[in-house]
Amino acid sequence: MKKTIKTIALLLIGGSMTWAQTPEQKGLKIAQDASKYDEGFESSEVNLTMTLKNKHGQESVRFLSNQTLELIEDGDKSLIVFNSPRDVKGTATLTYTHKEVSDDQWLYLPSIKRVKRISSDNKSGPFMGSEFAYEDLSSQEVEKYTYKYIKDDNINGENAYVIERDPVDPKSGYTRQLVWLNKSNYRPEKIEFYDRKDELLKTLSYANYKVYLGKHWRAGEFLMVNHQTGKETTLKFEDYRFKVGLAEADFSQNSLIRAGR
User: In this structure, what DSSP letter does residue 215 have?
Assistant: First the structure.
């Protein structure tokens, strides 16, 4: 009888601990679980089509490629290269994401054959005229934000968590972001970005997901809509390849210059 009472008491204590979890603790736990879920892809390559649309509906199209190196002890590294049209061909961006300090980013401009470091003050600026900011190119490391669980929701026919994440970096162009994460596999379904005045600036929607290597979910399309300018940028991803043997030596400034030639 005493053993039964003790078991019930333990269950009640465990239940109260669960209910006592704060929205901040729950939000952080969801973000940590999402990060852990996607670990293990090692490196990847993908081809992209970027379509820019202005508020009048006029479009311009660019073709580029992206390489990513997964690093568990720090943030990922990535290299983006524009392949066409001629006016942007050879332009390349190198990003070192960091978990606890400001990211390092460099831009290679073939017209002047120089590598230009992107300062922290400019990372909220538009990436190559698109609706993506330079800071959006960084991998979304858990330590880059503080978190709060907002609610459960349904989006695109899927059950999702909605969490708020606030950038730790005071030079971020955003005060906060609302993120919809799929409950079953933690893939992002939508992100709302709020500017320094805490007004809705942009919405990023994800579509056409595929799963690779049995666990790594990647969207086939990103749509970033700027609500304040009426502009849009669409990214379409093709030919994803994982575990392609990339190393840190492939993400140096010399690699950036070589990629742009």
Answer: T
Dist CA 244 CA 107 (whole Å): 24
Q: Which of 170, 55, 80 is nearest to 121 (CA)?
A: 170
Pick from 234, 176, 216: nearest CA to 44: 216
Assigned token pair, 83: 């392949």
Q: What would the pLDDT profile of 217-239 be if each residue is shown by its tens digit?
A: 999 999 999 999 999 999 999 99
**pLDDT tens across 70-113, in order?**
999 999 999 999 999 999 999 999 999 999 899 999 999 998 88
Question: Residue 43 has which token pair?
Answer: 């490196």
> In terms of DSSP H, where are the helices of 178-248?
none
Whole-angstrom distance, CA of residue 261 vs CA of residue 240: 23
| Closest among 55, 57, 59 to 236, alpha carbons compared | 59
Rounded Cα gap, residues 94 and 78, in angstroms = 6
